[in-house]
Structure formats: C-alpha cells, structure tokens
Amino acid sequence: MFQMAPVIIGAQGQRAAFRVQHQGGPPAQGRAKDQRHAGVAAFLGKEDPHLVQLQGGEGLSDLLSSEGIQSDVSSWGDFRSIDAQSVGTLPLRVNLLNLVQSEITGLDAIQHDHRQLISRGSSGQFNILTPDCGRANTEPLKSRCQSQEGGMSGLGEQKAQQATEQLQDGELWLFLTQEGSDPSVPLVFGTNSVGKAAFMLHGSGPKALVSRIDAGHFEQHAAFLETRSYSTSFETDLIDWLRELSPHTVLLNFSEDDIRCDGLTHGQYLAVERLLGEALPQARIASSEAQLSRIRAIKTPEELRRLQQAIDRTITFYDRLLPTLHAGQTERQIQARMNTLAAELGTTPDLGDFGGPLVLINRVGMSHRAPTDTAIEPGDLLILDTALETEGYYSDIARTIYFLKDGEHEPPEREQRVFQAIYGAIDAAFAALKPGVPGYQVDAAARQHLLDRGYPEIQHSTGHQIGRHVHDGGAVLGPLWDGKRRAPRLQADEGMVFTLEPTVLMSPDPSMIVEENVVVTGDGARYLSQRQQHLWTAR
C-alpha cells in the first residue's frame, strides 16, 4: 500500500512543500550520507533506492535540477497557481536516495499523519528530525528546532502560532509598526519592519502588509502565511484586506497597566480607529493586553533554552568575578571588570532597559544608581546585580559579598542572620509558586517571612518575569499596595520564568540582595539558577 508523508526541503532560504508516496510499511530508520540529511533518510524503508512521487509547489523542479537530481515529470503544470495554503497535486518522480545524497543544505523532514495535508498553517503532533539537533523529537510544527543560522524566524513561527491560538472566532489581532515602534512585533513574529507595516493574526493564518522595500524579506519569512506589499497607499490596501477578513473584533496593542503591551502609539491608535470606522464600522476595538501578556509570559521550549543559557552564563560570570574582588577596589573599577569579563564570555552585563550592572557598596546607598569612586573597605557589604543577554533573552541575578576584616574568617553573626533570613524568604516564595496561585500570594509568603524575623518590609515586588526584557511585564510577584494593579492578581502558570529577590534594605545597616531565577512547572517551580547558598566573602 502507499503511505503518505510530507517532507519539507529548504535550499538557500527557499522552502518547497511536498508530499511523498512510497511503497511498503511505515518508514524505517535509514542511514543518511551525513547528519544534515538525517531527516530525509528517515523516510527510507531500506537502504535501496526508492522511487517516490513528490507533489510540490513553485520552484521544486528548479531546486531538484540545480542539485543534479534526475526526475520524471508527469504533469508539471502552472506552479503559480499553487497558493500558500495547499500543497497542490503536481506529481514528480525522483529517486529518494539520490535526494538524500545530494548537497542540498538545511534539510528538514517530517513524518506526519498521512490524512492531513501539509501546509505552512498545519499543526499537531509529529516526529521531526532536523539538521541542527540531529535527533527525533515530538512537538508541534511551530516548535521545531532552530535553523543553523540561529535567527529568530523559527522562534517567530512558534510565537505567532502561540498567539494565534489565543484568538476566538471572529477576532483579528492587528499590529501596526514602523521603524520598530511596537516592541511586541519581534516577540510575536521574530522580525521587524523598516517601513510602515501591519501584521495580522487571524484564524486563516498570520498575514503581513509591508512596503515594497520590505517585501522581499517578509515573503521568505516563515512566520507569515500570506504577505502583500503596497507601493503608495498603505491605508487603502489595509482597509481592503480588513474588509476581506471581516472580523467582528479587532485587538490592538494598548494597555493602561503594562508598558510591554502598550506598543501602539497614541497617533497610531487614532489612525487605526479612523481606518476601522471606514473599513469595519460594526467591528469592536479591544485591548490585546490579556493575550499579549500571556504570549510574553509562557515561554516556549526554545525560549527556555535561551534563558537557561543566559542564566548559566551568568553563574559562570559570577564564579569568575568573585576571585578578582578585593578591598581597595572602587565601585567604578568593579563595574569595569564586570564589563571586561562579560565581553570575554561573548556578552555584555547590564540590566537591559535599566542600565547597569549595579555595583553597590552598602554604606554608600542602595538604589538603581551609577557606580561611584568609593573604594571597598574591610567590613563592607557589596551588592552586585546584573543581567546577561543570550540570543535576545536576559537573565537577572544578584549576589552579595562580605569583605572580611583582619582576623575574620567568616562574616559576623549579624550579617549571616540577614543572609539566612533572605535565603528563607526565597524558600518561602519558591514553595508558594505554583500554577494557579496569584502573584500577590507568592509575594506575601516571602514578605511575611522577613517581617516575622523583625526585618523591614520589602520595598518592591518579590519577583518579576524575565525574557526578552529584564522586566518582562505580565504577572508579577508583588503586593496589592494600591489595590488597583492588575499584575499582582495574575496567576502563575507553567512556562513562566520569574526572579525571586526578597531583599533586606537597611543601609547603612546590613543590606542584602540575593536574586535567583526560576521557572513555573506543572506542579510547582524549578530553579534555573544555581543558588547562592551562603554569604560570599572576599578580602
């Protein structure tokens, strides 16, 4: 019997989708020429050549011919009639072993339910072999491994799919941007535009309306099912497209509470309100805050990989920094050393939008401030707080160091009590952090732990989310001080990544910040950072 399985082949940034027929039972493990072709080799029932029938879209014939692959064209037809939502029915017979042995780069192969038609909009579970991970993996199409180029496009596909799943029937999510004006665009789509652009999420798939100068890039971008370009009238083309899609609700990126969800400028809001009044007078405008904050918060496996790499790099950073610290160094000198060390690790130390890194001698004052020329003296506490960026994602980890006086071999009891109180407060927050628990309850656990031991109330939230920004918006582990903030009322959910940083700030008395990074799991939380187990010392 014939079994159907789709294959995706990419060459030099191009993609062609086709279906494969082969005789025999289910595909067995075959041996490829090298790891790049492992995916296609998985479709070989034997090592012997198989004749297969490829049904493909535009460019398939040229792609195969350019690699010297012999094919028997039965009925090639007009490829320009094939749209992005279907594979088409154009048959082409090739020797699959020759295909495996070709030098086509960037091969992906997917074994999928043969009853479904492969397309850029398909989803579901399937086995995948990719050239850059070289092993089988079971996960949605949009979550497949990143390309060897390491760009954001694969992640953009994942996040665009994740965002689309947030939509209800009849809803359209409209992103308006120009020169990178909306920070949510690279998060959701993994790219940005130079000219004025509209990106739309809709039940029929992600769409892009871009200027002709940007069109070439977006036509090849895997996150978009359909791309159109305009030459003179952006508004006219957008109105026409909105009328075609005819949603009853249009979500826009504005928010009164969360700056990460407030990417639409006031002027753009006025413009789109006018356009929608003309194109869809019956449509309702609504904020995308709930959807966008969730997309930002729930990290995909690829996002978690990047965050873990940034966190691991930060732990290495501190491990290398600690032996170089000594009394007599100034805050400014230590920051310079941190910059040098980070460069050696291939990154930069900062707090993202907040600058940094923070280098704070306790007796000089505890705040987000620039370093001074004050030198460390024996008996000082030094607080270091930094974030390292990896592939667009940030860690955020703080450490406290005590500088021993002559004759001391460990910190004084008072300083150690403060550290143990903070350590216990982190334990309390960690134990409370579970899916379904609102952020203010997690904050209360840490806050009460410190109050019960006689320390002053924490002057900030116990924790915030990290991701594309050091402070990544959405749910926070914070108090209900004004009774109006939405963020502390939001519930933790699996895949969110938080800092835990309950602090004791009593300058000039002992002040300490220890900050860890954790991910929410199905039944609790898990540390991503290696914890500071004791008050570090230096001389």
Features:
3 domains; six-stranded mixed β-sheet; Creatine Amidinohydrolase, Chain A, domain 1; eight-stranded antiparallel β-sheet; elongated; 539 residues; 13 helices; Creatine Amidinohydrolase; alpha+beta; disordered N terminus
Q: Can you count the helices?
A: 13
Q: What overall geometry do the principal axes of the alpha carbons give? A: elongated
Can you tell me the CATH superfamily of the largest domain?
Answer: Creatinase/methionine aminopeptidase superfamily
Query: Which ranges are low-confidence, i.e. pLDDT below 50, for 5 or more consecutive residues?
Result: 1-58, 69-152
Strand content: 15-25%
Which architecture name of the largest domain does CATH use? Alpha-Beta Complex
- The average pLDDT value, as a whole number, equals 77
Organism: Deinococcus radiopugnans ATCC 19172
Keywords: Aminopeptidase, Hydrolase, Protease
Pfam family, one: Peptidase_M24
Domain Peptidase M24: 306-521
Describe the 3D structure.
This protein has 3 domains: 2-148, no CATH class; 157-295, Creatine Amidinohydrolase, Chain A, domain 1, CATH 3.40.350; 298-538, Creatine Amidinohydrolase, CATH 3.90.230. The strands form 4 sheets. Strands 4-5-3-2-1-6-7-8 form an 8-stranded antiparallel sheet. A 6-stranded mixed sheet has the order 12-11-10-9-13-14, sandwiched between helices. Helix 7 packs across helix 8 and helix 12 packs antiparallel against helix 13 (439-452). The chain is built from 13 helices and 23 strands. Helices cover 27% and strands 22% of the residues. Strand 10 and strand 11 form a beta hairpin. It has helices at residues 38-41, 60-66, 96-101, 153-164, 184-189, 212-219, 234-245, 266-279, 289-297, 301-321, 331-344, 413-432, 439-452; strands spanning 2-11, 14-23, 51-56, 71-73, 91-95, 107-111, 125-129, 137-140, 171-177, 197-201, 207-211, 226-230, 249-252, 284-287, 349-350, 358-361, 381-390, 393-394, 397-403, 497-500, 516-520, 525-527, 536-538. Residues 1-58 and 69-152 have low confidence and may be disordered. The protein is elongated, with a radius of gyration of 27 Å. The chain has 539 residues and is of the alpha+beta class. This is Aminopeptidase P family protein. It comes from Deinococcus radiopugnans ATCC 19172. One of its GO terms (molecular function) is metalloexopeptidase activity.
